[in-house]
Design a protein that fits this description.
By secondary structure, the chain is of the alpha/beta class.
Length: 227
Amino acid sequence: MEVLKTEALTKVYGSGQCSVTALEDASLSVEQGEFAAIVGTSGSGKSTLLHMLGGLDRPTSGKVFVEGKDIFSLKDEALTIFRRRKIGFVFQSFNLVPALNVYENIVFPIQLDGSDADEGFVREVMETLGIDGLRERLPNQLSGGQQQRVAIARALAAKPAIILADEPTGNLDSKTSQDVLSLLKVTGQKFSRTIVMITHNEAIAQMADRIIRIEDGHIVKGGTAND
């Protein structure tokens, strides 16, 4: 089942002679449970594409569908709620709240939405990621790899339709990167989550089920499962 789709997604910054086209006619689809990596050099448009997929920035033209919903048909407040419930994010910089412990960081977005966390599910995710024994620790008491595992658990906790990972190993050494990516893939498979990751690292990208290549704002390969 198709869980994520874009149609002719275009993003232009500025206007007239000062305009820059960061993304042009980008169309792709991702199936339920798939782990897709979007690969491109710096300035290729991969971060812009990820921001569009996550509803963090609106396109100049084109559409993004998550579970069949045209997310940019929603007004800003409704889009924020949809994003919180349906899209999990894992960032390079971890983005943990310093004053909250590990468990509090994981369930914080769910509580922000006015909901109660599924404690049994959260515990299972934490055990799978090997961080259940770190529940009471603050972020500054964790290694980089542990912080990223917490970020992955936070992304999974709300049971989103998709998880978007933005250079998730960018601040980690090579061994820790491999460990974290392996766990990301394993947890995605175990909990039937769809993962879309952007990276410039070819070795990291090879861990994905499919590689989508982007160059100069255009998807040149891998936009669909049969491409």
